[in-house]
Amino acid sequence: MGRAIRVLVIDDSALVRKLLSELLNTAADIEVVGTAQDPYVARERIKALEPDVLTLDVEMPRMDGLTFLRNLMRLRPMPVVMVSSLTERGADVTLQALELGAVDFVCKPALDVSGHLKDYAAELIEKIRVASRVRIRANSVLPVAGAAPPRPRPQAPALRHYRTTDRIIVIGASTGGTEAIREILMRLPPDVPGIAIVQHIPPGFSAAFAERMNRQTGLVVKEAAEGDRMMPGHVYIAPGDRHLQLARDGARYVCRINDKAPVNRHRPSVDVLFESVAHTAGTNACAALLTGMGADGAAGLKQLHDLGVYTVAQDEASSVVWGMPGEAVKRGAASAVLPLHAIGDALLKASRARASAERSH
């Protein structure tokens, strides 16, 4: 085995520092080389200890986690996993941290629920391992070099309630996905077909993510709810810890939400969404599988591809983690393998081309 992954734990709580250190040190390939109670101490320990990965508390005294992260990504870019509180503010700050270049996040451990610590430790260790393999670049949150600037973001038009969408776009993502999704949505016009998204995200964070996308794009973005009708210019994000499926209701596509067992260890699962779309919409859909660890979505994308649906996998160079899209490529599930900045236009063109071809018949 090679050198252990060196981790510096930054948190203002001595109890949390101790617990995170103990959990991480149970992994043979991870070594907590130090801890810091605030960013000023952390700055000196990063220089002295040269860690591979940081865990960073979202909210700290003296200097908040976002200010520290912004400076770190400018001066000494390195992989960071945020440790977030399960609050509305914690969710919003965490999403800002991902925008600034943090690789991923975990929620604060529940100190009084020892029965959940085993699962928590497994999640934390897996995310540290993934983070250690991510290449972090200075100003990593800037648009990809050579990419076209995002489209202007006009307010999405008001749509009549009876209007529906014959075309739909479905997207799945995990690690690195919140920023990848933002990049795609920023480039889409207000009359884009309705979009359904599964992003692996905990309860409480999906609503904050949807609200953030609603503010930052020219689309109407919401957390999907049971019975929501898919409409052009609207984006429906699966709620944390609930599966999202699409069903047909007369001439309309509607969202179905359920809490059935996790699939591929995930709820929401990308495969659950994609497989429902294969049955419900067939070639009326276009699909993309973005950055993320594991294989969730690869089987569903293959199913769509085999029906003749236009499918895209994000390429390795622009992915934070080329797990899910890489597995899809391996299975022959992708009509195209594209850099992130090209995916939105490709989905839009494919959707419009199919609509145009059907009108000409």
Automatic annotation (TrEMBL):
<feature type="active site">
    <location>
        <position position="296"/>
    </location>
</feature>
<comment type="similarity">
    <text>Belongs to the CheB family.</text>
</comment>
<protein>
    <recommendedName>
        <fullName>Protein-glutamate methylesterase/protein-glutamine glutaminase</fullName>
        <ecNumber>3.1.1.61</ecNumber>
        <ecNumber>3.5.1.44</ecNumber>
    </recommendedName>
</protein>
<dbReference type="InterPro" id="IPR011006">
    <property type="entry name" value="CheY-like_superfamily"/>
</dbReference>
<feature type="domain" description="CheB-type methylesterase">
    <location>
        <begin position="162"/>
        <end position="354"/>
    </location>
</feature>
<keyword id="KW-0597">Phosphoprotein</keyword>
<keyword id="KW-0145">Chemotaxis</keyword>
<comment type="function">
    <text>Involved in chemotaxis. Part of a chemotaxis signal transduction system that modulates chemotaxis in response to various stimuli. Catalyzes the demethylation of specific methylglutamate residues introduced into the chemoreceptors (methyl-accepting chemotaxis proteins or MCP) by CheR. Also mediates the irreversible deamidation of specific glutamine residues to glutamic acid.</text>
</comment>
<feature type="domain" description="Response regulatory">
    <location>
        <begin position="6"/>
        <end position="123"/>
    </location>
</feature>
<dbReference type="InterPro" id="IPR000673">
    <property type="entry name" value="Sig_transdc_resp-reg_Me-estase"/>
</dbReference>
<feature type="active site">
    <location>
        <position position="200"/>
    </location>
</feature>
<dbReference type="Pfam" id="PF00072">
    <property type="entry name" value="Response_reg"/>
</dbReference>
<dbReference type="InterPro" id="IPR035909">
    <property type="entry name" value="CheB_C"/>
</dbReference>
<feature type="modified residue" description="4-aspartylphosphate">
    <location>
        <position position="57"/>
    </location>
</feature>
<keyword id="KW-0378">Hydrolase</keyword>
<dbReference type="InterPro" id="IPR001789">
    <property type="entry name" value="Sig_transdc_resp-reg_receiver"/>
</dbReference>
<feature type="active site">
    <location>
        <position position="174"/>
    </location>
</feature>
<keyword id="KW-0963">Cytoplasm</keyword>
<dbReference type="Pfam" id="PF01339">
    <property type="entry name" value="CheB_methylest"/>
</dbReference>
<dbReference type="InterPro" id="IPR008248">
    <property type="entry name" value="CheB-like"/>
</dbReference>
